[in-house]
Amino acid sequence: MKYILVTGGVISGIGKGIIASSIGTILKSCGLRVTAIKIDPYINIDAGTFSPYEHGEVFVLNDGGEVDLDLGNYERFLDINLYKDNNITTGKIYQHVINKERHGDYLGKTVQVVPHITDAVQEWVMNQAKVPVDDDRREPQICLGGTIGDIEGMPFVEAFRQFQFKAKRENFCNIHVSLVPQPNATGEQKTKPTQNSVRALRGLGLSPDLIVCRSAKPIEMAVKEKISMFCHVEPEQVIFIHDVSSTYRVPILLEEQGIIKYFKQRLNLPIDDQPSDLLMKWKKMACRYERLLKVCSIALVGKYTKLSDCYASVFKALEHSALAINYKLDLTYIDSTELEHSTEVQNSVKYHQAWHKLCKADGILVPGGFGIRGTEGKLQAISWARTKKKPFLGVCLGMQLAVVEFARNCLNWKDANSTEFDPDTKTPVVIDMPEHNPGDMGGTMRLGKRRTVFKTENSVLRKLYGDEMFVEERHRHRYEVNPELTHCFEEKGLKFVGHDTEGNRMEIIELENHPYFVGVQFHPEFSSRPMKPSPPYLGLLLAATGTLSAYLQRGCKLSP
Fold this sequence. Notes:
Keywords: ATP-binding, Glutamine amidotransferase, Ligase, Nucleotide-binding, Pyrimidine biosynthesis. With about 550 residues, the chain is of the alpha/beta class. It contains 20 helices and 21 strands.
């Protein structure tokens, strides 16, 4: 097993996840089996109870793990399926060690950060690195991992300082991602932050083998030589990644700077110097992305719109689908509270601007979320999509609100609501699932990959999924459509075309006589891949561009 540790310096959010994913993509294109581990220093057991404004979206894995969004990048780039233990947190490690201490495993010894916590980190990494993540179920050959260098991450840094000797030099490589800022006052690219960052890392006992420099613009050769000289590495060990038009371009930039040849020599890898067809496909995809001329605009109506990372997987799923049909995605984020009447009273300009954005979009998407704030605005957007025949996709809460909107405006149940927002509603069209609501918040929802069975052949989504009898997608919810009331909706044209294996939980809705009005209880965005777009999102883009009917007539084959 070869281990590649990716550390970050100067600032957080510098792109460790994308760079680690891109390196994994390159190594996978060389025929190697790659897995990935993300290390987060927070004391939370997992990311499940975070506000999206804390760390971005919560990514859900097949096994129900609620993890950092970087694992989503790993899955999308490497086309693998990870597990919750691929996300290590300080909370998990300490819980593991404390449980062992309570069990008496340490035989009366004083339990300390060194060696007990650091040993637990190393043991966890070595065990999880062996778990197969590809469809062929073979043990990985390369394990990519990421940690950081701030004070709460120190036990992890110390663990890897020890681990580099345990794994041996030919099996361990450290990549340090740093920032080369360019102040507007001088326009000169500054190397001092990188020098200080590398010096601090060396002081902790880790010497970077590769220094990846992030910058706004391409870095000049003189800067590369300066970093090489002051950071004690060869010039070819300094890699530049400037801001690019799309993340698809990052693996290509790395490959162009000789990273395959370096890894072959440094880790003694049994690979050719040239990548296989996989990286050629990435090159073609990146070039195609940059040449797109036709634009499709989608309005995302949500409550966490101030930070794009809150909907990272949704954005990627839309982007994958747009690229598949040769359109450039124009995604507009609309804060759902700005569509509400209260905003019209308080700030009419903001209200009308939000509605203007919604009205000019080609399609409307209402993603998942929790809590009552902004729900009335989402209901207004759904009503607009339904009545004006705008292509619409509702995901998780988006589907539940589509049911509430239909009940209020088509069934004339004016007090229809979800028990999440009004526990005492007289018409509960969306109800909680008692077995998934035991009192604790963390890890108690209906999580992970579940099967959804189509109950009719007359379904747009079934055709988009290749006319399969069932699909398996990832879930993350605590509430469901009330199954006792579904017949009332179906009589009026809102069809529940998919349900769980027992037939009790409603999973997919479709509205008759509408170009594309679809709601799904699951989160299809978590399974979307750059070369395998998610069918519900693909359907939204096809309908928004007016090409859905032609696509279905071709037997769900994309035009060349």
